[in-house]
Amino acid sequence: MAKFKGYVLQHGTSPVNGCPFVVIMTMDSGNTKTGNMCQVWILTENIHPVDAVNLGADDTVCGDCPHRKQSDGSRSCYVNVGQAPAAVWKSYKRGIYGKLSDLDLAVIKNRKIRWGAFGDPAMIDSTLVTIFNKHAAGHTGYTHQWRQPWAQWCKGVFQASCDSFADYLDASAHGWKTFAVVAKGKQSFSGKLCPATADNSQAQCITCSLCDGAKTDIFVEAHGSGGKYVTN
Ligand code: SF4
Fold first, then answer.
1. Ligand 1 mutation target, pool 139, 211, 215, most atoms within 8 A of CB
2. Helix H or strand E segment including 22
3. How far apart are CA 64 and CA 194, in angstroms?
4. CA 144, chain centre distance (Å)
5. What ipTM is given for this predicted complex?
6. Ligand 1, from 208, 230, 232: best to mutate by most atoms within 8 Å of Cβ?
7. CA-CA distance, 71 to 103, in Å (whole number)?
8. How many degrees, rounded to 5, is the angle at CA 171 between CA 170 and CA 173?
9. What is the pLDDT of residues 188-217, one digit of tens each?
C-alpha cells in the first residue's frame, strides 16, 4: 500500500449548519507541545480556513465555540488558521492526500492520535473515531460541543472544554471529564494542571495522554487578559 503524508478520513455534513466539511489525518507532526502524534484536521470543504474564520463560516467545523472570531473582531482561539490549517487545506485541494481506503490501519498501531488539531472532533463520524482509537496506541481530544445532543457520543472519548466554573460544574454534573481554562494565579476548579504548561516542563501530549476523555479533569492557565489560550 502506498504511503501518504495524510489521509482524507471523511467527507461530512456539519450537524450545526448542514455545510460540507472534510476530515484529514496528517501522519507526521513537528508540534513540540503534542509530540509526533497523528493530527486530525476538521476543515470547511470548499472555503479556505482563513476565509471561513473571517466570514463566520467556521461554525461548520467549530460549532458555537466562544473562541471563534467575535463581532468586535477579537478571536481568542489559539490556532493560527493562516498557518497549519491553511497549509493542510491547500495540500488537500492539490490532491496529495490518500483516501481512507489507502490507509492500512496497521500504520497507526503504535501511534497516538490528536483529534482536532483544528476544528471540533464532535463533527466527525463516531464510528470512525471508535475504530481508529481501537487500533491506535492512544488519543487526545477536546470538544466545546458537549451540551449538544448530537455530541453526546464524545463523552468518555474527548474532554469537555470549559471556559468558566459554571461550565465546569455543568459538564461534570453530566459525566464529562473536563479541560478548563482558569485565569492565571486563580484557583483551579478541579483536576491536574496540564504538565506541558508547567514551568520548564518537558511533558508532551504523546507521553502524557491524560486528555482522552476518560481519565481525569485537566486545567491550564490563561496567559494574560484576552490573550490566546494555551490549550491542546
Ligand atoms: S494534560 Fe492534556 S494537553 Fe496537557 S500534556 Fe497531557 S494530554 Fe496534553
1. 211
2. strand 20-26
3. 24
4. 9
5. 0.94
6. 208
7. 41
8. 65
9. 777 899 999 888 889 999 999 999 999 999
Q: What are phi and psi of 68, to 5 degrees?
A: -70, 165
pLDDT tens per residue across span 123-182? 999 999 999 999 999 999 999 999 999 999 999 999 999 999 999 999 999 999 999 988
Mean pLDDT of the chain, nearest integer:
93
Closest CA to 113 of 205, 21, 7, 12: 205
Q: How far is the CA of 187 from the centre of ligand 1 (A)?
A: 19
Determine the atom of ligand 1 nearest the C-alpha atom of 205.
8
Q: Span 69-80, mean pLDDT?
A: 93
Give the number of the atom of ligand 1 that is nearest the alpha carbon of residue 197: 4
Q: Is 148 exposed, middle or buried (0-12, 13-18, 19+ CB in 10 A)?
A: middle
Distance from the alpha carbon of residue 184 to the mean position of ligand 1, in angstroms = 18
Q: What would the DSSP string read from start to end of 159-181? A: EEEESSHHHHHHHHHTT--EEEE
SS3 state of residue 129: helix
206 lines ligand 1 (CB under 6 A): no
pLDDT in tens, 58-74: 999 999 999 999 999 99
Query: How much distance in Å is there from the Cα of 65 to the middle of ligand 1?
Result: 20
Residue 218 phi, psi dihedral angles, 5° rounding: -130, 145
Q: Is the CB of 203 under 6 A from ligand 1?
A: yes
